[in-house]
Each structure stands twice: as C-alpha cells, then as structure tokens.
C-alpha cells in the first residue's frame, strides 16, 4: 500500500517538480529508505570510540578530525599529486572546470593508497551505510585560483539523496581565500529537507542548487552555514547528501584527497568508466 502511494507521488512529483506534491514524494521516499536501512543488519567491526563519529555524522552531517596526517606527509602527498598530473595527463579529468583532478590516484601512489585503504575509515563507512562499504577510488585534486571558478564541485549541490559518505583530507592549509569546504548543517535530514524545499522552492530530487536559493536558507538561519578553514592534515568526514560545495578560490592553490565510499554491491565497471578512473599499473 505504502509502496504504491510512494510510487504514485514520485510519478506526480517528476511532473510537478515543486510544491506540496514534491514535498510529499520526498517525505515518502525518505520513509521508504529509512525502512530499508532499518532492515539492514551487519556485523560491527567499528571501534567503540568511532561510534560517536558515526552518530555525529548522522545528526549534523559532518565530523572534523584535526591532525589526521602530519604536515610532512601532506608535503609528500602534494608532490605526489604534482607527479601524477605530469605522468598521467590523459587521466586529468576533462569535466572538472575548477580543479585538476585525477580519479584513482590511489592506484599510482603508495602514499595516496595508504589514505585510500585506511581500515579505520573503511569501518566508519560500513557502519554509516550499515552494509559492507569500500572506497571505490581516491580523487587527488590540485585546485589553483582561476578567473570565475565556482570552486571544487562546481557550486552548491548534493552528491546524492539519502546517504553518501566521503572522506576529504586537506593537503594544504586552507583559509577563506583558497577554497574551504562549506556545508549547510542538517541539510541531509528528511525533516529539514522538506522545510528547505518549502523555504527556497527547491524541486523534487534537485541536485544542483542556485546561490540565491542557498542565500534564502542562510538568511533564515545563518548558523547553519559552516565554512571549514583548517590546517593541512585535517580530515573531513561528510555525508555528501548534505548541501555543500568547495568555496570559489580567490588566491593560492588547494590540494586535497577525497575517498569515494560505496556499498560493495554498487561498485562495478561502469562506475570506473564514468569517473575515468586511473587503473592500477
Ligand atoms: O572538495 C570540496 O571542497 C568539495 C567537493 C565536492 O563538492 C564533492 O566532493 O562533492
């Protein structure tokens, strides 16, 4: 019965993108997703200390871990990214306008792979998704200031609706001028999503969000806008079903690594093709 109702609302919302029907369809989608999540039982491999990380991730959408890597390790990793960009020009992603990106940098650098295959992060991801989850690949990004850049991720967006876990590590000191990660707190929570849809006239399954729409949400509650300036070596664990972006870069360059976690059964060849992932040598 609920399935049929959800499917009817979904169809209607795909036609009438905004308004009450879109909000009802979103609520029903999230209810169905929550029911699926509650059915999932998996064996816990997470350390007790990290359970609070997952709880905070669910509540706020983001957790910051300072000094995850030393500044020496970050220095080396930046050099590794410079090397990969020179050695693998064919894999410097053509779609990214703002930054120089290599998906799968973990396949060509042992140092980057030590971040990509970090077992602690893998178990946090598994706990968050409540199913066996792997890092499909690590993105290495060098982002210089360029005129009119929209920042890493090309403006405000959600990567997905429902859950999507990423681990982003700054390899440079990141200030307001060189592209800090930004996020609207709680924007992944179903109740908040419905309110935000109403307030900013967001559409059903709208992934990319206009700056004016974000401005309306921030005006209503300025404290929700978080801007993460931090030292090199800072780790950001984030549910990228939140509204987020890298702030446009004004000066300097930002280097970062990002692990893309997915439930094992969602990772297949087509994903590697889609992101044009650098293969293992
Ligand atoms: O690297 C960042 O600061 C943001 C990246 C982003 O938007 C994404 O990974 O979806």
Helical segment count: 9
Task: Give me the CATH fold name of the largest domain.
Answer: Jelly Rolls
Radius of gyration, in Å, reads 19 Å
Cα separation of the termini? 51 Å
CATH architecture of the largest domain: Sandwich
Bound molecules: 2-oxoglutaric acid
Q: Could you name the ranges where pLDDT drops below 50 across 5 or more consecutive residues?
A: none
- What characterizes the major β-sheet? 6 strands, antiparallel
Helix percentage: 25-40%
The CATH homologous superfamily of the largest domain:
q2cbj1_9rhob like domain
CATH classification class of the largest domain: Mainly Beta
Overall residue-averaged pLDDT value: 92
The dominant shape is globular
Task: List SSEs in N-to-C order.
Answer: HHHEHEHHEEEHHEEEEH
Task: Give the number of DSSP strands.
Answer: 9
Number of domain units: 2
Structural class: alpha+beta
What share of residues are in beta strands? 15-25%
Order of the strands making up the biggest sheet: 1-7-4-9-3-2
Descriptive tags:
binds 2-oxoglutaric acid, 19% strand, single chain, 3-stranded antiparallel beta sheet
Outline the structure in words:
The protein has 2 domains: 1-39, no CATH class; 49-274, q2cbj1_9rhob like domain (Jelly Rolls, Sandwich), CATH 2.60.120. The strands form 2 sheets. A 6-stranded antiparallel sheet has the order 1-7-4-9-3-2. The chain has a 3-stranded antiparallel sheet with strand order 6-5-8, with no helix packed on it. The mean pLDDT is 92. It is globular. Helix 3 crosses helix 6. The protein starts with a helix and ends in a 7-residue tail after the last helix. The chain is α+β, with helices and mostly antiparallel strands and 281 residues long. The longest helix is centred in the first third of the chain and has 20 residues, at 20-39. The protein has helices spanning 2-15, 20-39, 48-60, 71-87, 110-116, 119-129, 190-200, 211-220, 269-274; strands spanning 62-65, 100-103, 133-144, 165-170, 181-184, 225-228, 235-239, 244-246, 253-263. The structure holds 2-oxoglutaric acid (AKG). Residues 152-153, 159, 166, 168, 181, 240, 244-246, 256, 258 line the site of 2-oxoglutaric acid.
């Amino acid at each position: 019965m609920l399935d049929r109702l959800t499917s009817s609302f979904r169809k209607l919302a795909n036609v009438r993108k905004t308004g009450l029907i879109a909000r009802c369809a979103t609520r029903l989608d999230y209810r169905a997703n929550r029911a699926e999540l509650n059915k999932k039982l998996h064996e816990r491999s997470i350390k007790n200390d990290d359970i609070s990380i997952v709880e905070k991730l669910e509540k706020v959408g983001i957790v910051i871990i300072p000094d995850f890597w030393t500044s020496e390790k970050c220095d080396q990793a930046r050099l590794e990214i410079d090397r990969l960009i020179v050695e693998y020009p064919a894999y410097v992603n053509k779609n990214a306008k703002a930054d120089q990106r290599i998906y799968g940098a973990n396949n060509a650098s042992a140092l980057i792979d030590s971040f990509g295959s970090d077992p602690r992060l893998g178990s946090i991801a598994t706990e968050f998704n409540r199913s066996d989850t792997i890092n499909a690949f690590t993105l290495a990004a060098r982002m210089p200031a360029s005129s009119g850049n929209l920042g890493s991720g090309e403006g405000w967006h959600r990567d997905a609706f429902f859950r999507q876990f990423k681990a982003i590590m700054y390899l440079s000191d990141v200030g307001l001028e060189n592209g800090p990660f930004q996020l609207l707190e709680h924007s992944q929570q179903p109740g908040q999503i419905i309110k935000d849809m109403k307030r900013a006239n967001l559409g059903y399954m709208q992934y990319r969000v206009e700056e004016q729409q974000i401005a309306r949400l921030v005006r209503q509650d300025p404290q929700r806008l978080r801007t993460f300036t931090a030292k090199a070596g800072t780790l950001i664990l984030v549910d990228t079903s939140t509204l987020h972006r890298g702030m446009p870069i004004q000066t300097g360059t930002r280097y970062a690594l990002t692990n893309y976690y997915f439930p094992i059964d969602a990772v297949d060849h087509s994903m590697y093709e889609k992101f044009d992932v650098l293969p293992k040598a």
